[in-house]
Amino acid sequence: MTVLLLERVPPGLRGEVTRWLVEVGTGVFVGRANALVRDQLWDACSERCRDGMVRMIWKTNTQQGFDLRTTGANGRYAEEMDGLWLVRLP
User: Which of 22, 52, 65, 78 would disulfide-bridge 9, Cβ 3.0–4.6 Å?
Assistant: First the structure.
C-alpha cells in the first residue's frame, strides 16, 4: 500500500499521478505500487512540486510497519531516530 500526499502542487502533477494511484481526497492518493513505480513517482513529484509539499508513505517490514519520504516546506519535519520516524514541529 502506498499513500502519496500533495499540497500546493501544479494541477498537471496531480493529473499525472492519477495514472498510477487513486485520488481519494484532494491531494491524497492511494494504491499499490512496486518499488520501481514508487521511486519514479517520487522523482516526478519532488522535481515538479515547486513551492508545494510532497509526502510518500508505504508499507514495509520495519518496527513501525511503514517508511516515508517528504520534501517541501510545510512546518512539520519527519526525522528518523533509531529506526523510528518522528515528526518535529518548529
Answer: 52
Query: Which residues are registered as beta bridge partners of 6?
Result: 54
Q: How far apart are CA 90 and CA 34, in angstroms?
A: 34
Cβ atoms within 10 Å, residue 55: 19
CA end-to-end span of the chain = 30
* Cβ atoms 29, 69 nearer than 8 A: no
Q: Is 64 helix (H, G, I), strand (E, B) or coil?
A: coil
- Tell me the DSSP string of 2-43: EEEEEES--HHHHHHHTTTSEEEETTEEEE---HHHHHHHHH
| pTM assigned to the model | 0.84
pLDDT at 86: 79
